[in-house]
C-alpha cells in the first residue's frame, strides 16, 4: 500500500485482535453502561438461585 492510500483511509487503532476505528464521543460510556447492566443482571440471577445443601 502506498503512503497516499494509507493517508486516505480512515484512521484506525491497531490492537492484537485487529484494527479498530477510534471511538466516537459517547461510545465508550455507552459500552461501559451496557457492560454494567449485563453484570448487574448476572449478579441478580446468581442471587436468585436457591442454595444447594450438602456435598
Automatic annotation (TrEMBL):
What segment(s) does the record annotate as region Disordered? Answer: 1-28
Q: Which domain of life is it from?
A: Bacteria
What spans are recorded as compositionally biased (Basic and acidic residues)? 1-11
Protein known as: Uncharacterized protein
Q: Which organism is it from?
A: Mesorhizobium retamae
